[in-house]
Amino acid sequence: MSTKHRRARGAKESSLRLRLVAFVGLAILIVGAAGWLLWPRPAPASTASRAVEITMAGFRPNKLVVPSGQPITVRLVNPDSPFHTDGGGMHQFAAPELGVDVVVQPRSSMEVTIPAAAPGTYAFYCDSCCGGKESPAMQGTIVVS
What we know:
alpha/beta, Immunoglobulin-like, three-stranded mixed beta sheet, 25% helix, rod-shaped
């Protein structure tokens, strides 16, 4: 066999090897992508099922931003003792424009669902202690966007 034929045959084998490697690589990529797309994933938590926590010894956080048209669950935590000097340790969470008005007993917590609301800014406050709703620490806003 001549040198010219050996070079041609070697080039042809090299080209076939390169095509085979490319084909196998592409097949692996396609199977991997299909597996990734078909792999089961947990459903994302809806806003309604996620509880936002507010501490009531001075509302923290004092501003909530929530999506419009979806209810939101708020976990209210009252860390004050029954011997709190003002109000007997009870705290109120009132958002009249949203139809919410609850009292949380000392050293306890409760969950309340704020109904779906139209876009806007809504006030909430505590009027049972610590200077009432006039106290800057005992008021906040819910921004529905």
